[in-house]
Recover the amino acids of this structure.
């Protein structure tokens, strides 16, 4: 089932929550809406669930107008950020709710509902918890009840609103993998809203990065990470160094670094280069920059270095932890630094993806 | 230091216990003590009199009409105020609260000016031989006015704190409007609703000022229990006055006991809701 | 037309507005309309008469005094109920709501039985020269009774949610117990105290049932405004009664507005900038 969102706009008073948003979700695909709070991602999700309506634009599911369908008839499975479990019902009653409120004709028999509930309890690994109340469960357990409740109605589309937001880091990682496996097993088209880039990159087939009510980029996790389309995507996903570039006689440069094969033909007087920490090479031959190690932060298998690079400023570089000792990378060490890969932006929206060694 | 602190603490506890005893417990004790001053027989004799019985019936009748009316209003108003944003909402909230800040006497008078002989609808009513003022409908109207905000005020903060997510979840899962209301909304507010109904009922049965103005004090016809208390008191029938008063005081004590009992559950549910968020 | 997800907006808005219009606004409109039947000279004669002035002074002055007493007593009681554990605490906690549940007429005769010259406490107080029943003081006592729960009940949740760390921080910075109370605790509680003051005030100003028995209702001494209204109604002076009612409503709404403005100023630290 293909979900197609076209040119949706939504305002709340003077604030624009969504502007001209278009997105397509293919059958069985897992799409993450990633963005900071206030970027419009939750509004978009609520529109898909039928809990809010756009001022303009259309949403269709396999060609049918989705907006014309009432929330209660859409058959979407929605998992709320705070789960919204019915606190006065047991876990089993919560899961059965969507089946029990069906019109009499369509309602499954009592025994069918019971077996569906126990099947789902098993699936979310909560067998034996059917008679508990939500207040008697841990956060991760409640999360899974919310998921089972959403799945009970056999939805055509699964919507997840920050489903791991309220959980501890450890529980979160475990649940994430489990959710991805479950989604693949069910082959269910899924839209996830999150502000956690790690979560989006790890879970989704495609990531839509949102900012100020617009989608800045849609792509696979690899595309979004390695080929960010806008400065916002560069800064929001992963860590990144910003280097100001100025045009001289030899082209755009920063303290002696002159990326080759500039496509702009001398057009822009200034540009900004975004370089990820792992794309700064330390100790390379004929490096353009010289720097001093200011701090070393060991973070497990890799280490983050703060470098004072003369003419550029403070840059962050990542190296493998075992290289620290091997290459004498201690505080105060003099090192040579050279960018290996960068994305440069200039003017309104000129973009240039540069890689060392690509040119002559 | 520690001894001084504990002396201060004991003093504070003793002072507040004294304040509560003199100001609240003593009046309650006086009612029962005066009612039984001349023995159990004098007490029970009061309730063999037709005036006392009709006052009790009338009080029950007024409450039986006014409380459900306000229950429907309170739940609807709370749904409106806690679940929707609209222009003029603050003003509407102020109007719901208005009966709290109008003197009961003034409220009663307003109905007299509306339905009394010289009132807006007075002549129309007289022509058709319909009595509102100095009759039961007037008592009911005045009581409904006075107790209007009770249930809504109890429900609005609770429903606002609970948020609408559970109801939205019910909608997304396919529930119809009434299914959502009876299966999700109502169970979530039931204890607060019951508490609001109890308070509303206590006030409805005990209302004096407004009812006194519209009643006309016609024995056996428009005299509710609080008015019966007043009339007997003014006729120096102290035992009778306190006997009827003791029934009302008993109602108050039961209401409080029920409330205290419920607060166990109610707090527990609110606490569960707290973890829930 | 914006679609709403939760059902019943139109229906509940229509019903609530219609019902409020019928039950609340229409009667009050009749009141205001009736008061306009009084000519300006009639208004002046009414409001400048010594009896009216004395009644208004007693109603409003007494209510302010009673609300102030409620703030002091309520602060103490709420503090003790929230912060300390002692035998009978739950009982006393439940008892606080008594004035909400006890009919005012019952409270009125009970208070009279206590403070009358031959009453339970009156027999000791009167020889000491303290005359409560059938005097202005009795009016205040009744008003304190009916307003008692408001301050305690508004204060309790605030006290419960107040972080003890704030007080501990103040103490660790060298503040004495009194300094902690007056410089840290009291300013934090002030908005709530003012809310409770306003509620108790509104209730006391209009109070009728519990006051008229204990007051003795001596004109120009212990006669409250609502009673004056009732007397005018019994004389069939409807315009005068309505005018006095409107005057009282306007005065009390102005007073409550003033309280809420002060309350707003006192919690400027929690308002968004």
């Amino acid at each position: 089932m293909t979900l197609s969102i076209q040119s949706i706009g939504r305002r709340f008073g003077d604030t624009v929550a969504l502007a001209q948003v278009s997105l397509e979700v293919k059958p069985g695909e897992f799409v993450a809406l990633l963005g900071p709070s206030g970027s419009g991602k939750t509004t978009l999700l609520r529109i898909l669930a039928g809990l809010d309506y756009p001022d303009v634009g259309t949403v269709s599911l396999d060609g049918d107008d989705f907006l014309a369908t009432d929330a209660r008839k859409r058959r979407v499975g929605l998992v709320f950020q705070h789960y919204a479990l019915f606190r006065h019902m047991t876990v089993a009653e919560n899961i059965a709710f969507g089946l029990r409120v069906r019109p009499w004709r369509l309602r499954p028999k009592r025994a069918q509902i019971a077996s569906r509930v126990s099947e789902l309890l098993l699936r979310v690994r909560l067998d034996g918890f059917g008679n508990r109340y939500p207040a008697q469960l841990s956060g991760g357990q409640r999360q899974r009840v919310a998921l089972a409740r959403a799945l009970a109605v056999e939805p055509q589309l699964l919507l997840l609103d920050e489903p791991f937001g309220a959980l501890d880091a450890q529980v979160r990682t475990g649940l994430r993998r489990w959710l991805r496996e479950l989604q693949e097993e069910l082959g269910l088209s899924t839209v996830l809203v999150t502000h956690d880039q790690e979560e989006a990159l790890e879970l989704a087939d495609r990531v839509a990065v949102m900012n100020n009510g617009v989608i800045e980029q849609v792509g696979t996790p690899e595309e979004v990470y390695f080929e960010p389309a806008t400065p916002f995507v560069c800064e929001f996903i992963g860590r990144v160094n910003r280097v100001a570039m100025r045009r001289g006689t030899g082209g755009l440069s920063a303290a002696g670094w002159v990326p080759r094969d500039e496509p702009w033909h001398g057009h822009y007087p200034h540009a900004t280069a975004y370089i990820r920490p792992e794309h700064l090479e330390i100790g390379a031959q004929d490096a353009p920059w010289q720097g001093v190690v200011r701090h070393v932060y060991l973070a497990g298998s890799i280490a983050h270095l703060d470098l004072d690079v003369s003419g550029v400023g403070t840059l962050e570089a990542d190296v493998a932890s075992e290289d620290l000792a091997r290459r004498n990378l201690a505080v105060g060490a003099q090192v040579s630094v050279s960018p290996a890969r960068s994305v440069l932006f200039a003017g309104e929206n000129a973009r240039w993806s540069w890689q060392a060694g690509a040119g002559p | 230091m520690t001894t001084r602190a504990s002396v201060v603490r004991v003093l504070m506890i003793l002072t507040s216990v004294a304040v509560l005893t003199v100001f609240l417990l003593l009046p309650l004790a006086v009612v029962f003590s005066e009612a039984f001053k001349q023995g159990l027989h004098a007490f029970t004799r009061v309730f063999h009199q037709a005036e006392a019985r009709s006052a009790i019936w009338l009080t029950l009748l007024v409450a039986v009409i006014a409380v459900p009316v306000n229950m429907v209003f309170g739940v609807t108003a709370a749904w409106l105020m806690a679940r929707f944003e609209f222009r003029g909402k603050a003003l509407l909230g102020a109007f719901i609260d208005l009966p709290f800040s109008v003197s009961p006497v003034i409220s009663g008078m307003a109905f007299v000016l509306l339905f009394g002989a010289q009132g807006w609808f007075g002549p129309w009513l007289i022509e058709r031989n319909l009595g509102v003022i100095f009759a039961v409908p007037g008592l009911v109207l005045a009581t409904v006015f006075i107790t209007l905000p009770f249930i809504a005020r109890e429900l609005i903060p609770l429903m606002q704190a609970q948020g609408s997510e559970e109801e939205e979840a019910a909608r997304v899962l396919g529930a119809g409007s009434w299914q959502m209301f009876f299966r999700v909304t109502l169970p979530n507010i039931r204890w607060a609703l019951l508490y609001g109904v109890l308070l509303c009922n206590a006030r409805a049965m005990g209302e004096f000022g407004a009812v006194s103005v519209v009643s006309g004090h016609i024995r056996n016809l428009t005299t509710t229990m609080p008015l019966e208390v007043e009339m007997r008191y003014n006729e120096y029938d102290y035992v009778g006055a306190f006997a009827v008063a003791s029934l009302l005081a008993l109602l108050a004590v039961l209401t409080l006991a029920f409330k205290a009992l419920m607060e166990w559950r109610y707090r527990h549910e609110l606490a569960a809701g707290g973890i829930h968020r | 037309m914006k679609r709403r997800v939760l059902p019943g907006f139109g229906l509940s808005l229509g019903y609530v507005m219609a019902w409020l219009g019928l039950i609340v606004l229409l009667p009050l409109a009749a009141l205001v309309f009736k008061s306009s039947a009084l000519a300006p000279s009639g208004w002046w004669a009414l409001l400048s008469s010594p009896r009216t002035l004395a009644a208004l002074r007693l109603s409003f002055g007494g209510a302010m005094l009673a609300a102030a007493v409620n703030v002091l007593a309520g602060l103490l009681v709420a503090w003790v109920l929230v912060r300390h554990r002692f035998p009978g605490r739950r009982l006393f906690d439940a008892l606080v709501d008594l004035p909400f549940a006890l009919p005012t007429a019952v409270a009125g005769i009970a208070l009279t039985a206590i403070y009358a010259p031959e009453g339970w406490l009156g027999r000791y107080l009167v020889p000491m020269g303290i005359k409560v029943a059938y005097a202005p003081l009795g009016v205040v006592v009744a008003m304190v009774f009916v307003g008692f729960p408001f301050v305690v009940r508004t204060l309790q949740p605030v006290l419960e949610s107040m972080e003890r760390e704030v007080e501990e921080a103040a103490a660790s910075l060298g503040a004495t117990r009194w300094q902690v109370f007056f410089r840290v605790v009291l300013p934090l509680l002030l908005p709530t105290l003012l809310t409770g003051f306003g509620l108790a005030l509104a209730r006391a100003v209009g109070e009728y049932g519990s006051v008229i028995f204990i007051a003795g209702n001596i004109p120009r001494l212990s006669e409250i405004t609502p009673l004056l209204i009732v007397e005018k109604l019994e004389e069939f002076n409807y315009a005068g009664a309505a005018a006095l009612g409107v005057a009282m409503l306007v005065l009390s709404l102005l007073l409550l507005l003033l309280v809420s403005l002060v309350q707003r100023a006192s919690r400027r630290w929690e308002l968004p900038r």
Summary: Chain A has two domains: 3-234, 241-355. The CA atoms of residues 48 and 62 of chain A lie 14 Å apart.
